[in-house]
From TrEMBL:
Highest taxon listed in the record's lineage: Bacteria
Family: Belongs to the short-chain dehydrogenases/reductases (SDR) family.
Protein name listed in UniProt: Short-chain dehydrogenase/reductase SDR
Organism lineage: Bacteria, Pseudomonadati, Pseudomonadota, Betaproteobacteria, Burkholderiales
InterPro entries attached to this UniProt entry: NAD(P)-bd_dom_sf, Sc_DH/Rdtase_CS, SDR, SDR_fam
Gene3D superfamilies per record: NAD(P)-binding Rossmann-like Domain (3.40.50.720)
BP terms from Gene Ontology: monocarboxylic acid metabolic process
Amino acid sequence: MNTTLAGKHAVVTGGGSGIGAATAKALLLAGARVTLMGRDAQRLEAQRDTLSAYGGVVACISADVGDESAVNKAFSAAATVAGAVDVLVNNAGQAQAAPFAQTELSLWQRMLDVNLTGVFLCTRAVLPSMLQRGYGRIVNVASTAGQIGYAYVAAYCAAKHGVIGLTRSLALEVATKGITVNAVCPGYTETELLRASLEQITAKTARSEQEARDVLVRHNPQRRFVAPDEVANAVLWLCMPGSESITGQSISVSGGEVT
């Protein structure tokens, strides 16, 4: 551990696995107090126990980021446990594929609720305190799906494009307030979301899992999937001293897929 972020309280939504878990570990090892948020309390507790082995302060609070009341209660509890939030990583997300003509309103709304409205609600919960203290780091984990389009995931792409628009707009609003707002945009990353995508491909086509992996990995010019730690490193950089001039950006972590 180091003390670069000592005294800072970081909240990571979707912190129970994948990119969220890797990001929480990176922030903890940089000296921050970390609160994990997500819907699955058991998974959060398991991740908290894993991270606690590194020392430092790790808390976990269960909440659905798309539920306004739950979000407000969760962030109030987080502030009580570990102090005002200095760093917010909006990582909670969900992806589901369907041809556009078969995309039901319920699927559309679910993708917006988790991937976009959740970012809005969590950010709104921490922003007043950040403005009052003149300091904050907000990092939204978007996706290359927010920078370009992919077939069969129109709802997900729309939500992630919305995250990037929100990022750019809010960054301008708070540019003189000591707060930065950025997005990192991973390509296909070795997480549960990737595994879910592979399962959808194999279930709906005649492809094997390996054939499905080959289809997706071709999006990355490096011909590999991104590792969660690589995304976490990008998030950490945006939270560290020396990144104060980086705001309103959508940084692609995709092996050159988006330039």
